[in-house]
Amino acid sequence: MTQQTNQSWGGRFSEPTDAFVAAFTASIGFDQRLYHHDIRGSIAHATMLARVGVLTDDERDAIVEGLNDIERDIEAGNIEWSVELEDIHMNIEARLTDKIGITGKKLHTGRSRNDQIATDIRLYLRDEIDAIGSELGRLREGMIELADRHADTIMPGFTHLQTAQPVTFGHHVLAWQEMITRDHERLMDCRRRVNILPLGAAALAGTTYPIDRHVTAELLGFDRPAENSLDAVSDRDFAIEFTSFASILLMHMSRISEELVLWSSAQFDFIDLPDRFCTGSSIMPQKKNPDVPELVRGKTGRVYGHLMSLLTLMKSQPLAYNKDNQEDKEPLFDSVDTVKGCLRAFADMIPAIEPKKTSMYEAARKGFSTATDLADYLVRAGVAFRDAHEIVGTSVAYGIKQGKDLSDMTLEELRQFSSDIHEDVFDVLTLEGSVAARNHIGGTAPHQVRASAQRARDALKAAHAGGAQ
Question: What is the distance between the alpha carbons of residues 240 and 317, in angstroms, rounded to a whole number?
Fold first, then answer.
């Protein structure tokens, strides 16, 4: 008599699986986190099978009760996972059969582990997307409120990390908020493609049982069943799309982190990060290190790596399911965990940032930040822009030699460069006048910054009302 090597597929084999191979191919070490979603999918599957007459109501009830008992056991820590049973599916099914007998073996009717795992991952990722969406909303809200409080806190704006034009801290923070808003929109768009049901595709070609996939989709909250059974079991685009979202999000958070690290340095001295988000040095007692933004900046690389890992995993797979796809979970799980951790840290930290207004203001006074305003002043006086550009460039060169900013020069000094400069020039050479002059939607005028913050606040509320987390 042939020795059975595995209760789910051992009938065809004549010898046991090598112990190393069993451990090497098992996924229970990491896919056990899918237990809730596996059980949820199995309950829906059993419910559907009873509706179409494949299971009796009593069999369905026994299965559902047994699965609920198993979930309670797992959450109480009373389950020992078995490598011999390979994965979360077979561990739960074996436990169910132990509890309720042969009826437990009927649960797998009309499905395969191929469509089962594809369903589990989508259920898991959908829940995680909703949780991440909530944290993105919390971060955006914190940024909006911080920007609103500092709509008129003047700081230098930079290009090439060189002083360019005056802006306000509120305006700069709203730029961060715009980046995160796009990430939030990408995530919600990704969720639509996650929310498609693979269950019912079975191994690759569907099933001969009279299943009703629309019932299963409705029970599990999916928008619709997948259209093609081959694609349903082998598609991992949704996981790649999520890690793409995660990579772009972490890229944005890394850019913000870089600014926080720079700004909190003694050389910039623009902001104070709360002590609870920083650490000290084991040897230098004066140090206050911005560890949270530094670590977020560092974690960006691992998420990029997960995106490349999934893209490479899928790049040459023929249809349909292949064992390669077991390698999709750990990159996805770690991307989820990394994103959630980084967002929690940022959502707590960003609203608590304290700008150092005097340092920012003094920095904005350096580097001839109102030079463009002087050029615009001359254009309004009738000077061609290219000529105005040349005039201001010459005045800046003079200022560098004299160690004077444009606003520190006398009217006589300025008029040596153009007779079109008059007393009212000082209205545009002040930092306050400069930021107030850009009085249009998206501009730096403080009331425009506050209006932009209110629009962002309204958009976030509308997103919540519309179901986006």
Answer: 15
Residue whose structure tokens are 């009717």: 109
In whole angstroms, how far apart are CA 307 and each of 20, 119, 296, 323?
Answer: 29, 21, 17, 19
Q: State the CB neighbour count (10 A cutoff) for residue 157.
A: 18
User: Whole-angstrom Cα distance, residue 300 to residue 43?
Assistant: 38
Query: What is the Cα–Cα distance from 128 to 122, expressed in whole angstroms?
Result: 10
CA distances from 190 to 227, 242, 344 (A): 18, 7, 21
Range scoring the smallest mean pLDDT among 121-125, 170-174, 424-428: 424-428
Q: What secondary structure does DSSP assign to 243-281, as a single string?
A: HHHHHHHHHHHHHHHHHHHHHTSTTT--EE--GGG-B--
Burial of 88 (0-12, 13-18, 19+ CB in 10 A): buried
Read off the pLDDT band of 3 (50, 70, 90): very low
- Could you list the active site residues? 160, 281
Read off the pLDDT of residues 34-70 as tens digits, 9 standing for 90 and up.
999 999 999 999 999 999 999 999 999 999 999 999 9
80 exposure class (CB count in 10 Å sphere: 0-12, 13-18, 19+): exposed
Using CA of residue 81, residue 84, residue 85, residue 87, what is the dihedral sign? Answer: positive
Give the DSSP H/E element, type plus range, for residue 205.
Answer: none
Assigned token pair, 168: 């306000």
Could you give the CA distance from residue 299 to residue 375 in angstroms, rounded to a whole number?
43
Residue type, 79: I
Alpha-carbon separation of residue 40 from 61, 96, 147, 217 (angstroms): 14, 14, 43, 12
How confident is residue 133, by pLDDT bands cut at 50, 70 and 90?
Answer: very high
Q: Mean pLDDT across the stretch 318-341?
A: 97
Over residues 263-288, the pLDDT tens digits come to: 999 999 999 999 898 888 788 878 88
Residue 421 to residue 334: CA distance in whole angstroms: 61
What is the pLDDT at residue 467? 65
Cα–Cα distance for residue pair 270/366, rounded to 1 Å:
14
Q: Give the range among 13-17, 32-36, 241-245 with minimum mean pLDDT.
A: 13-17
The answer to whether 368 and 396 have CB atoms below 8 angstroms apart is yes
Torsion sign, CA atoms 145, 147, 149, 151: negative
**Per-residue pLDDT, 1:** 35
Token pair, residue 381, equals 């006086």
